[in-house]
Design brief:
The complex is a heterodimer. Chain A is built from six helices and no strands. By secondary structure, chain A is mainly α. The longest helix of chain A has 34 residues, at 110-143. The two termini of chain A are 22 Å apart. Chain B has helices spanning 12-36, 46-76, 81-91, 93-103, 115-130, 187-198, 208-227, 229-240, 255-262, 272-291, 311-315, 323-336, 344-358, 372-381, 387-398, 405-415, 420-430, 437-473; strands at residues 145-149, 155-159, 168-174, 365-366, 401-402. Classes of the chains: A mainly alpha, B mainly alpha.
Amino acid sequence: MLEISPDKMAGLAANASAALELLEDGVRSEGVLRGLAEGEEFCIFLERGANARTRLESFSAAGLAAGEFVGLVLSTDSGKELANKVHLVLEQLRQIRNRLSHGMMPKFTMHELEVLRDYFYSFARALAHQEALRERLARDIESQH
Amino acid sequence: VTSNPSTEPADYRALVERILVQLADSLARLQLLLEDNRARFGRNDRPIVARIEQFIDAQIRTQLALHVQAYRAKRDGAKDSVSLARTAYRACAIRSRIEDAHSALRFIDVPSSLPETATLVGRAWEILRASRLGEISRLARTPPAVCLSPLLDPGEHIFGATGGAAGMSVVALAKIDHANPFAWSLLLHELGHRAIRELDIQSETTDDIVRQWVIEIGCDIIAMRLVGPAYYAAFLSRAIVDDAFSISTPRHPSPAVRAGLLIDYIPAWFPTPLRESFHQLLTSRTRAASAAPLQELVPEKAVCKACNQDIAKIVKGKVDILGTPLQEFLDALNNNFNLPPYPQRKYELATRLAVELKRGILIGGVRSTDSVLDVLAQITDERNDAVAGTVAGIAQALCDEPADLFDILNAADVAFSDKSEQLELLVSASGDDLKGDRWKSYRDLIKRQDDLVVASMETASFSSAIRGIATYVE
């Protein structure tokens, strides 16, 4: 229950986006580091989901859930484009977090940070809508019994 | 249906502030719930509690701190309003994590519901029964029971309906709200469900979804008439942090639709600045989701697993055809209940009580506005006759009457509607990632407010009970 599940992908993306925005403003805090780590977690899920879709022998529950999630992302053209960038984004996030945790400034321009921030924000918005709908339906069904 | 928030300008700063305070309050209450019940946890519970605490702590120290810091950076800088809207939208993601932590409370059998919650529900049910036009016996005498639930949203459950016997009705309150009287008025919506069911009030529309929706809105209006603006305040505070703010399902119209409709049912006498602040909050929340320039990622169509239909297609356009069935349903409600809107004079009294509450004084009792000196002056003038009447007047001017529970809820809302002190405390605590004494002070502030309101309700109910006994003896 308390583990991060693919259902909470919107939360991961939202926090990564907020952390990157704070970074643009020059804020360094535990929250920023944690938000970046959540962004990495998001990317790993996205990658795992892509693998689960292409390799059918990968049958773990998390893999399937991630696959279902990626199915949602890939159902749109812009989603496909975003998903294709995931490897690069993950690499950039790791670089930023690594430098920050060693007390150094990330080697990124404001514009690059902004692009990264928008990347996560676009996921956060679309997925939150989808997840909220699913949760609301589940609650409706539960309350009828 | 007449509200059209899209024509109003949006105030994202006020929205972000309310969202952050609402989320911080919830996390603080979760922490307090576990701390206050520490003595009751046995060996079996402790590992579960430790895990939940760890999770809540991480949410506070990192996620909440992150969003408060983002707000502070924007507030002090010169960021545009879209940027504030983005913060508001992102902060709402914390709610689903609060929901996760809260659902884990089902593994431990704390806390217990407070007797004041049941008293409030009982009082509301009594008023509903008394306002019933025609045969009163059709509404059961026993009020619904109250239980605590691991779900954040209140609900109504029925069980034991067999062989023609009516089922038992239980209203469920979230565990996190067991000592949070600001959320208790939401339970009155659930009483509406029971009353509508027992009286078999039905919408005549043939549209299944609209039929469900008008019942939900009817229950909102019943609750609003019972408790007044305190219901709207509680509903809106919940709605603005909901990811599903603008999402309707076949069973429930979206919080946005409900809040938009309800604002038109706030009594006309309600102070304009407060109505405007509600309206502003609603407008900015409605717009926050669409304010950002990134809209290219459209989610896949959602399909309802129960009926296998595309949700968007099912609910689309229902708002537009809601008007007439809703009006007909409200007419049917009016034909069954003589339930006038919460009156202005009671709200004025609540405003008077709020002044005391804000000073930290219990408001279990309320005194007549006549001063004792005025009544004594009357005795001098009318010494020959009507002495008995003036003695009663003196008694009224000297003694407290028990305050009405709904007035106490409204007084609490008026007293603590200004969140600036809380917000400043939160912003200053975010400097140390919400892990120092300033976060503790924030929590203490929430606890003090909750305790004061609950204690006022307790005093008022005790005083009414004693008075009832005295009248009976007389």
